[in-house]
Q: What sequence folds into this?
């Protein structure tokens, strides 16, 4: 490069510039990170919406199977297998997202789960009356979402030692297996079947920015930042759900119209929900299969029994149906398990005789409940933003209206946040929530939280509170820095004043300073300081985010 021999110092400077240029080239801007977060959240929202549609289709499929398992059964069994295969792949991808965050943050799984995930209840796909715990990643809260070295090594492996042994290669194998399974279920062509989940198929071609050929794994995960990796995994989850959706619809449509013509008439109870909040109304539809819309059934219903008998039939309530359908409504005033039984009476058009069809069902009445979960600490700190999640089983977030007894409660990043700027009597606040249910405003519950003052920071100079220090290091430090140790909130204290002191020629020389910087006078004294001279920073005052003035620890240093 140069036409002359470089000194060791010049070589080191050249190397430092080379490293600097490399870092600048690899730096990911905040705008790019924000774009990934927006895209990722949109993909996650789409995936959740698609999961809801799949659940609805599965519920309809299950209903038809319950009406005629002999004809619908074979298709229903395949549909359940499709759902199971899809859930297995999605569960693997969700665990992989968790592992990538763990790798990028270099923290254990317990720390990752506590700080960057939250749990929520969702309906079971096969049993809508049951709720399942589901874990959601809060990608915006992950500090190192622009890290790529560790996640690249994890996904692709060491290119020289264990080539093709990274997790991305295992992931592409699982994708290919599920894609082949769906194609087989739907009887599609391997190349032309629009199923998605394409990886290293023979007809696929991938290139890098310079036009060199790549495999699918390297094309997607080579030096890709964590935020992009999570977005790609959510995209694959979406493709998995789309393939699942298409396969279920294909199996459902494969049942011809004649498969819905039943040889036997059965009474069926279809509840709107078997999980009812106290004070609401239990709703269910009782239908008679295979009768046309002109049928007018009569239903007699009795609560608290398993069957209508000759002994209890006189106590049963009579309900007139219309179009083969009868709607049941029971007031849910007392919590606990409930049951009822009934009989449908219809005229057989062939014999003109009354035919009876018995039915029974169970449901649960539950008291309203409220879950308020702080996302960082189990207390609220005064003067800082305290994030939390608010939910109630069985209710959409949009229907929950929370309030707080002091301070401010507001929406933040899809969750909630609390800001309390001053002390509150008793150092406690209460969060309560109501919801609009059946045109009534109902109290869901309350949760109390303790208030704490933000802990004081540690005053440091060049990262030290005492001990020996090099004069040049002390001069380069130039200020007293308030440092928060092991505190999960992002907050800042401001040094308002301090007293600088030292001994010069046997005399105690104090200097009062405003702010945290070393003044020219202080710097002049430091430049003239001798070896083993004591330097003191005392009476250090700092103002916190809660507005209070704190006295911080003194700093005692000795010039090396």
A:
């Amino acid at each position: 490069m140069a036409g002359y021999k470089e000194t060791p110092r010049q070589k080191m400077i050249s190397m430092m510039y080379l490293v600097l240029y490399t870092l600048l080239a690899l730096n990911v801007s905040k705008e790019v990170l924000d774009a990934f977060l927006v895209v990722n959240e949109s993909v996650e929202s789409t995936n959740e919406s698609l999961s809801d549609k799949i659940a609805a289709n599965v519920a309809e499929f299950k209903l038809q199977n319950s009406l005629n398992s002999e004809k619908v059964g074979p298709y229903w069994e395949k549909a359940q297998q499709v759902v199971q295969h899809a859930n297995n792949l999605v569960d693997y991808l969700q665990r992989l997202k968790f592992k990538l965050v763990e790798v990028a943050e270099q923290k254990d799984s317990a720390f990752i789960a506590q700080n960057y995930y939250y749990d929520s209840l969702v309906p079971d796909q096969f049993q809508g009356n049951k709720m399942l715990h589901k874990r959601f990643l809060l990608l915006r809260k992950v500090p190192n979402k622009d890290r790529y070295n560790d996640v690249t090594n994890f996904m692709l492996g060491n290119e020289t030692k264990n080539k093709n042994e990274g997790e991305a290669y295992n992931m592409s194998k699982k994708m290919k297996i599920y894609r082949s399974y769906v194609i087989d279920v739907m009887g599609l062509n391997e190349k032309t079947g629009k199923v998605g989940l394409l990886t290293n198929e023979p007809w696929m071609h991938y290139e890098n920015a310079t036009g060199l050929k790549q495999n699918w794994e390297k094309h997607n995960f080579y030096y890709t930042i964590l935020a992009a990796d999570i977005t790609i995994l959510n995209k694959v989850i979406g493709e998995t759900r789309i393939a699942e959706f298409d396969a279920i619809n294909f199996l459902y449509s494969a049942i011809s119209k004649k498969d819905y013509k039943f040889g036997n008439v059965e009474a069926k109870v279809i509840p709107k929900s078997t999980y009812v909040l106290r004070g609401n109304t239990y709703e269910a539809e009782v239908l008679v299969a295979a009768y046309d819309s002109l049928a007018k059934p009569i239903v007699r219903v009795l609560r608290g029994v398993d069957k209508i008998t000759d002994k209890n039939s006189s106590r049963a309530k009579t309900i007139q149906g219309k179009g083969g359908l009868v709607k049941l409504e029971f007031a849910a005033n007392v919590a606990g398990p409930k049951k009822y039984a009934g009989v449908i009476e219809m005229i057989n058009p062939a014999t003109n005789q009354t035919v009876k069809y018995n039915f029974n069902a169970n449901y649960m009445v539950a008291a309203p409940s409220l879950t308020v979960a702080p996302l960082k600490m189990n207390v609220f700190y005064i003067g800082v933003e305290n994030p939390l999640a608010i939910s109630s089983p069985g209710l959409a977030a949009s229907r929950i209206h929370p309030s707080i007894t002091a301070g401010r409660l507001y929406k933040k990043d899809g969750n909630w946040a609390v800001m309390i700027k001053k002390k509150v009597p008793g150092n406690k606040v209460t969060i309560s929530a109501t919801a609009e249910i059946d045109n009534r405003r109902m109290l869901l519950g309350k949760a109390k939280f303790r208030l704490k003052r933000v802990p004081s920071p540690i005053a440091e100079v060049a990262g030290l509170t005492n001990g020996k220090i090099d004069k040049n290091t002390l001069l380069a430090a130039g200020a007293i820095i308030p440092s928060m140790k092991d505190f999960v909130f992002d907050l800042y204290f401001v040094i308002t004043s301090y007293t600088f002191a030292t001994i010069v020629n046997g005399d105690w020389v104090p200097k009062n300073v405003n702010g945290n910087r070393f003044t020219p006078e202080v710097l002049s004294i430091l430049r003239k300081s001798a070896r083993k001279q004591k330097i003191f920073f005392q009476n250090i005052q700092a103002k916190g985010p809660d507005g209070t003035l704190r006295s911080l620890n003194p700093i005692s240093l000795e010039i090396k």
